[in-house]
Amino acid sequence: MLSKKTHFSTDDAKVERITSRILAPFVLFVVFTLLGAMAGAYWLQQRTIESHSAKLKQHVWIAYAENLKEAASLLGSLTDFIESNSLIQQAWLDEDRQALLAAALPVYKRISKEGRVSHFYFYALDRTTFLRVHRPERYGDRINRHTLDEAFTSQDLAWGVELGASGQFVLRVVKPWLIDGQLVGYIELGENIKHLTRRVKRTTGADLVVAIDKRYLEFDAWSELQEQLGSRVDWNQFPDKLIIDKTLAVLPRQLVQQIGQGVEENVSITISDEDQIYDASVLPAVDARKQLLGNIWILLNTTTQHRDLKTLTTVFVLSSIVLAGLVIVLFYAYLHRIQSKLSKAYAKLRHEIGERKQVQQQLESYSYTIAHDLRAPLRSITSFSQILAEEVGESLRGDARDALQRVIRAGSHMAELIDDILELSRITRRHMSVGRVDLSQCAGEYFERLRSEDPNRRLEYHVEKNVIVSGSRELLYAALKNLLENAWKFTSKRETAIIQFATTTLHGETVYFVRDNGVGFDMEYVDKLFGTFQRLHPKETYPGTGIGLATVKRVIERHKGRVWAESEVGQSATFYFTLPDGAN
Q: Per the structure, how many domains does the chain have?
């Protein structure tokens, strides 16, 4: 009873190991799947934020360009109004600067208040300044400005953004001035575009920060402007840059560090400042000459999106953990049920196997005992029959003498049967001691033995060299011996017996074979060939017990191999076998 309980506990342990081997990979699969899903969801949401930011940045740039174009169009319309003013025309033709100022000043006051015009110039044909309406005390100088040069060259309206020495970006529109179809000079209107950044922010929600290289600024002019505006911008905040415009009252510290360090253009970075998150990109700040002056930072406040992403990730993680736990628990319960069934089935199977082993052992014991016990009376029958034949055989009549000879032959045949049965039983029960077996050497030795036992027969044999396998030498020798004996026996009617032992390859598998030029057999009865006591030829012509091929089959199957045969009646026979785990 104790032993049986121990067997069941061992069975349960084996099934438990199977369960753990299934559960562990399943848990890993679930975990990695959820991690992949979380990573994918996070990546997708991040890509959504980045895509939204990219579209918004493009919208910012388009809005900025459209606002510039709209402002330039408005300034162009104002220059049309100015050039057609009769008082202004007459003062210009009279070259009367005071009269021109008197006529233009009311116009300037009106458009500077309504249209934010900050600069108003009249240029002579040689491009010298005849009058600055916004600063009439300065005149007679030559201004090197791209928009003026372009209007002079093209003789058409020219506009563009240019940086002043004081650090102001000004949208300038220059128009050639025609009176009665005659070019008389040039009119320029300029608008400080600082208000455009505020308009872009209202339109798109993005903040702008403009940082300019100090090489393009004059400290005195900048200081004068800052004093007029009442601004407290620190000129020394950065060694080589100056922030001339911004829509944020306080810049994030990380942004200030990035501006000081300098970054490549057209790149995007994420900036965190306390509880705010910005998606920042850098664009080049260029003037009408396409000259790089500095950088324009576009800041998109993505705090809400990142918070939503964090919340979504948290919810997804918690939901995934709960779902994974539930799936694992359910799968474990399912495995536990299977484990219970497997334990019962395994225990039942072991019990049945044990019973069959006992029956098999009993049958083998019975066959061995019966065969062994038959030897003594059979030996007596055979011996006394031979003695009787020697002493009185000559005096017996023909039928009696023939009957006595039949008894002797039957006894001898029965003795052979008993020996073969005992050999088959020993092969079935024998322990396999696995090692390297040289089948070429075994075949060669047995061929020499056959030749020595019957030197009068002509034998031509062929053995492939170095056929080495892994298996039981004793069992494999017994199988090979039976195959070679069969070939020797069924070639006895040939003038020269030709027997071959070699290997071939079928479907990538090494196959061993014994081929002869004997009488062969009918393939219709090939299924009976390896059965115990099965014979396909009369024993009077080819003696034997029908145990040899059954022995071959048992040996090959114990080595996890297969055995089969092919033949042509009256031509030849070939016996094949495999040793899938034995090829070395």
A: 2
